[in-house]
Amino acid sequence: MTNVLNNPLFREDSGKLSQYEDTISSMDKIDYKLLNILQRNADTSLDEISDKVSLSRNACWRRIKQLEQTGVIERRVALLNPAKLDLHLKVFIQIKTAHHNTKWTQKFSQTVAAFPEILGVYRTSGELDYLINAVVRDMAHYDGLYKRLTSELTLTNVSASFVMESIKDTTELPL
């Protein structure tokens, strides 16, 4: 997970995230087209990309490199099918804690980072403190994850919601 304020792309000047604003203001329609193509399929060939955006191969390559250097493109990945890998159950784990000090937060961060089943961890506002997105084989696998998590951390309340149907599940950002 990338924290906006820890990202070298961002620098705080007079209350503004100036480098972020500079990056956004320097992007044009072609940059957005490139991003849309790449976020749908990062394996799209440079020739195909250049045809779709009506630029030369070299101009596309330079723009993509610039988007990577400025941090707009963080990385390129392969999206795997969880069911084909025997990971059939997606779970959202809601956590409440009575601890909000730096030491506990660091231990929490290190602990959840070590669980390969955990795909995302979010500190939230409202009644919950944290929301965890995880994927497991089955209920027994979740139970093991739950037991490991609660044995390593002091938590006030842990509850889980299991996904019965994915209606929309995407990594594409709205550009």
Give structural notes.
- By secondary structure, this protein is α+β, with helices and mostly antiparallel strands.
- The protein folds into two domains: 9-69, Winged helix-like DNA-binding domain superfamily/Winged helix DNA-binding domain (Arc Repressor Mutant, subunit A, Orthogonal Bundle), CATH 1.10.10.10; 82-162, Lrp/AsnC effector binding domain/regulation of amino acid metabolism (RAM) domain (Alpha-Beta Plaits, 2-Layer Sandwich).
- 39% of the residues lie in helices and 18% in strands.
- The protein has helices spanning 18-26, 29-40, 46-53, 57-69, 102-113, 139-152, and strands spanning 12-13, 16-17, 89-96, 118-123, 130-136, 157-162.
- It has a four-stranded antiparallel β-sheet, covered by helices on one side. Strands 1-2 form a two-stranded antiparallel sheet.
- Strand 4 and strand 5 form a beta hairpin.
- It starts with 11 loop residues before the first strand and ends in a 13-residue tail after the last strand.
- Mean pLDDT is 90; it is low at 1-16.
